[in-house]
Design brief:
305 residues; two-stranded antiparallel sheet; 14 strands; NAD(P)-bd_dom; NAD(P)-binding domain-containing protein; NAD(P)-bd_dom_sf
Length: 305
């Protein structure tokens, strides 16, 4: 790295090379750059880099690091080249405990950010994708990709096998909620407040998206499964972790939220399962969140008043 300075890392820290995200495809752009993360804090330091980049851009490209790096990090070997799981593995999954998180759109930009945050937490991940091979090349065996039509009941049954929670990073991927039996938590990222706040031509352009968002929220609330609906402001391409937040009612119709922060909040929501349901608005603002579990507990308490 060009520096002999030593870093003392505790058990809950990791020290890894940085990736770059280009047009949705993760590429190794600066293999000599590194960062470290201290526990739950997203305080990252990048070395050998001439410009400051976003939080997600700094996540290690260990996904493409090869067998040696995968084993060092604790991942299994790559799946067979045909992209298939063995019949034995697929059959035995029915008997496994529910420990996985399903991301309903692994091709979506925010969905990919969610996946990367889950990988950092060493979570078992499933993802609905269009192309299984492409997903495997992008994420290796850190993710179990499932390709097909989300409206297909047999596909959903397979996708939800062994799943404890579902994260929906965008509208239009919720269907057949009767297949959700056994789920412990559903997290929905919603821009309904933004669509409702639109007017004129913009309201016409977003009419279909608004209808889909309303339908998704209604299905989640009627499912009987504990849910967290995160109503964001306008989602924008901005580095995450640099700004604070605003959770005031009505803020989402006018404010903005970094896509990276939106993905991060979805993942943090996994650790706090409401008894019935939680709906809140969030945009980037001035309030700093030091403890997300405490933050979600406060939001739940306010929603019950």
């Amino acid at each position: 790295m060009g520096s002999s300075a030593a870093l003392s890392l505790s058990a809950n820290q990791f020290f890894l090379p940085c990736p770059q995200l280009c047009s949705g495809n993760w590429k190794r752009n600066n293999p000599s750059s590194f960062f470290f993360s201290n526990g739950d804090k997203r305080s990252l330091t990048c070395f050998s880099s001439n410009k400051k980049i976003g939080f997600m851009d700094q996540i290690l490209d260990y996904i493409e690091g090869g067998p040696k790096l995968r084993k060092w990090y604790g991942a299994p070997d790559l799946l067979p080249k045909d992209g298939s799981l063995s019949e034995e593995n697929e059959a035995s999954e029915e008997d496994e405990g529910r420990d996985a998180v399903l991301v309903t759109d692994g091709d979506n930009e925010i969905g990919q950010m969610v996946i990367l945050s889950l990988i950092i937490k060493r979570t078992r991940i499933k993802a609905l994708v269009k192309d299984k091979r492409v997903a495997m090349e992008a994420f290796g065996t850190y993710v179990e990709p499932i390709a097909g039509d989300a409206r297909d009941r047999s596909l959903l049954k397979k996708a939800l096998s062994g799943v404890r929670a579902v994260i929906c990073p965008n509208e239009g991927f919720i269907s057949n909620i009767e297949s959700w039996k056994g789920l412990q938590h559903v997290i929905l990222l919603s821009q309904l407040s933004v669509y409702r706040g639109s007017s004129g031509v913009q309201a016409i352009v977003t009419a279909n998206a608004r209808k889909q968002a309303e339908q998704d929220e209604s299905l989640v609330m009627a499912s009987g499964i504990p849910y967290t609906i995160i109503r964001t402001g306008l989602l924008v391409n901005a580095p995450g972790g640099n700004q604070g937040f605003n959770f005031k009612e009505g803020c989402a119709s006018q404010g903005k939220l970094s896509k990276e922060d939106a993905a991060f909040i979805c993942v943090e929501a996994l650790d706090t399962v409401p008894q019935k349901g939680l709906i809140f608005e969030v945009v980037n603002g001035e309030d700093k969140v030091m403890d997300w579990k405490e933050c979600f507990a406060t939001l739940i308490e306010k929603s019950e008043l």
